Amino acid sequence: MPSPATRADDRYHHGDLRKALLNAARTLLEERGPAALSLRELARRVGVSAPSVYHHFSSLDAIAVALAEQGFTELTEGLEAAPIHAEGQLAPTGHAYIAFARANPGLYRLMFGEGFRDASKGSQAVHALRERAYEKVVAGLRTRLPADELPVAALFLWSLAHGLALLMIDRQVDAGADAEAVIRSVLRLAGVGLPPSA
Amino acid sequence: MPSPATRADDRYHHGDLRKALLNAARTLLEERGPAALSLRELARRVGVSAPSVYHHFSSLDAIAVALAEQGFTELTEGLEAAPIHAEGQLAPTGHAYIAFARANPGLYRLMFGEGFRDASKGSQAVHALRERAYEKVVAGLRTRLPADELPVAALFLWSLAHGLALLMIDRQVDAGADAEAVIRSVLRLAGVGLPPSA
DNA sequence: CTATCATCCTAACGATGTAAAGATACGGAG
DNA sequence: CTCCGTATCTTTACATCGTTAGGATGATAG
């Protein structure tokens, strides 16, 4: 009944099971969050038996690490595409950072510690990825800040963007429709600082 | 051989199973992180059968919610104890916030979204707790900032403290021994702002 | 055409959260 | 002091999960 091997999806030897699994994981991640990442559910969605997954990933945590890897490359790409020379000093980088987190909430949460079974090992594998992404942020600021202020300023920006991104992802700040405006005003405050006294 | 009912721990009717479970959960949380919160492991540590837990909590997520509740009351207590009228405007609040997170890393992560089985329901129960804690932060700033700047300034401070706390908890910033100095300089930057240009 | 190999499958193990249903001890009413 | 109801804890059981072991299938090289 079925044509011999025209469609690549339902062949016995799957077209590219690894990629299919990652794609399914990506959508599952955004549908139900990192805690719902399930090896069996992934196999089910791809139409494959659960143990087959182990021919492409050594564990569920390995899938999570691969996803985080994807996420960090996409994040750094987004940061590099941000207009470095715009008028605001760190606003573009901050906007790009938060935009990525808001576009991929589940993935972003996974990238920062959530959803790993073996936290000590899984997170450790992601540790280096985070540091590399951080280097990109620092590099973006290097041309615009004196060298001695750079470390603290970079940590400051990272903390602010990370915190705001997480709060918005968790819907803790009800920015409603004008989320962009909220982000803008917070980032502006970062550039100017709070009024010196009340 | 055992004295009839002197010690409260090994009676048939447990002394206070609910509290014992929460205490065990607290230490398990800091030992192995929120992902390792296990109902059966808790029952094991308290010396009780697993289904007994259901006489005190309706689910594992309910335990997590109770823990988060503890955490938020302790956090707000810490924030209220912070010297509001010190010379720095928001530094004391920021320090108290980050100090709590660093003292209870597992609990803090649990309070902000990690470790819930049913993310949609568990996190929703914690949502109100987070907002109440946020009100405390806002209240602490109300006396020292003009009313129109207050919402943005509070969100700014919360984002910064939240982000820095998480980065330090995840050991992403290797502050080493002088963590306090790092926190101080970042918070100082929050009060002053970045230099207007490079 | 055959043999090798990557790929996938079924079967099974231990551990988890949770649901019944039964046993035990505590505490108040007679 | 006795009895009984109720809260508390237990054993048993089920579905699901991540993972392992061993067998079958399809593609591919000689």
Characterise the protein shown here.
Two copies of one chain form a homodimer. The first copy, chain A, has eight helices and no strands. Chain A has helices at residues 17-32, 39-46, 60-81, 91-103, 105-111, 119-142, 150-169, 179-192. Chains A and B meet through helix 6, helix 7 and helix 8 of A and helix 6, helix 7 and helix 8 of B. Chain B binds a DNA duplex (30 and 30 nucleotides) through helix 2.
Rg value of chain A: 20 Å
Q: Mean pLDDT of chain A, as a whole number?
A: 85
Distance from N terminus to C terminus of chain A (CA atoms, Å) equals 78 Å
Residue share in helices of chain A? 55-70%
Oligomer: homodimer
Count of DSSP strands of chain A: 0
Coarse structural class of chain A: mainly alpha
Number of helices of chain A: 8
Kindly list the characteristics that best describe this protein:
homodimer, mainly alpha, Tetracycline Repressor, domain 2, 0% strand, disordered N terminus, DNA-binding
Provide a concise account of the structure shown.
With 198 residues, chain A is mostly helical.
Helix-strand layout with pairing:
Two copies of one chain form a homodimer.
Chain A: H1 17-32, H2 39-46, H3 60-81, H4 91-103, H5 105-111, H6 119-142, H7 150-169, H8 179-192
Helix pairs in contact in A: 1-2, 3-4, 3-5, 3-6, 4-5, 4-7, 4-8, 6-7
Chain B binds a DNA duplex (30 and 30 nucleotides) through residues 11-14, 17, 38-41, 48-52, 54-56, 59-60, 117.
